[in-house]
């Protein structure tokens, strides 16, 4: 890989364009940084990833835009082997492999750190005008799983 033994630090911007590469991504409007430390020696490598994003998503009750932090750390051991193989905490790199593809890992790190409740913490913080609409809707459609992006379109 042409790296000298030691720690190598990188910083990457992660923005909505990154998530646009994953059409199935629930996260779209997120922005922030990924810090990468590659601990490199002749025989072993360790990748430490630290993701720090801000995710903008409509409140599930009143549709006002909320920001949530998406923060996650991951450590991956990298070893050389005959064939390239990615698993959760250990990657085997084949002899002819010179690039690490971490985009899938970044995608997963962002998704595991999603908050479960994507609504205003206190219902009293919700937009009272919108609350009336969404509550009426939810009585009828409470069993239906709707994509919040379509909910946002309904109010247009
Ligand atoms: Zn709200």
Kindly describe this structure.
With about 160 residues, the chain is α+β, with helices and mostly antiparallel strands. The chain has one domain. About 25% of the residues lie in helices and about 35% in strands. The protein is built from four helices and six strands. The protein has helices spanning about 15-20, 105-110, 130-140, 150-155; strands at about 5-15, 30-40, 45-60, 65-80, 85, 90-95. The protein has a six-stranded mixed beta sheet. Strand 3 (about 45-60) and strand 4 (about 65-80) form a beta hairpin. It is elongated and about 60 Å long. The termini are far apart.
| Quaternary structure classification | single chain
- Estimated share of beta-strand residues: 35-45%
User: What general form does the structure show?
Assistant: elongated
Instruction: List the ions, cofactors and other small molecules found in this model.
Output: zinc ion
**Average pLDDT, to the nearest integer?**
85
Task: Outline the secondary-structure elements.
Blueprint: E1 6-14, H1 16-20, E2 30-40, E3 45-58, E4 65-80, E5 85-86, E6 90-93, H2 103-112, H3 128-141, H4 148-154
Summarize the structure.
The protein has helices at residues 16-20, 103-112, 128-141, 148-154; strands at 6-14, 30-40, 45-58, 65-80, 85-86, 90-93.
Q: Which descriptors apply to this entry?
A:
single chain; elongated; 156 residues; 6-stranded mixed beta sheet; alpha+beta; 4 helices
């Amino acid at each position: 890989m042409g790296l000298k033994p030691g720690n190598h630090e990188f910083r990457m911007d992660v923005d909505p364009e990154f998530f646009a590469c994953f059409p199935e991504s629930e996260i779209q409007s997120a922005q922030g940084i990924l810090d990468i430390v590659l601990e490199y020696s002749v025989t072993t490598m360790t990748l430490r990833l630290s993701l720090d994003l801000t995710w903008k998503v409509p409140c599930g009750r009143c549709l006002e835009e909320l920001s949530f932090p998406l923060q996650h750390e991951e450590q991956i051991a990298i070893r050389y082997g005959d064939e390239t193989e990615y698993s959760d905490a250990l990657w085997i790199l084949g002899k002819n492999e010179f690039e690490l593809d971490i985009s899938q890992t970044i995608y997963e790190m962002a998704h595991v750190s999603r908050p479960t409740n994507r609504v205003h913490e206190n219902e009293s913080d919700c937009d009272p005008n919108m609350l009336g609409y969404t509550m009426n809707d939810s009585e009828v459609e409470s069993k239906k799983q709707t994509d919040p992006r379509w909910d946002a379109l309904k109010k247009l």
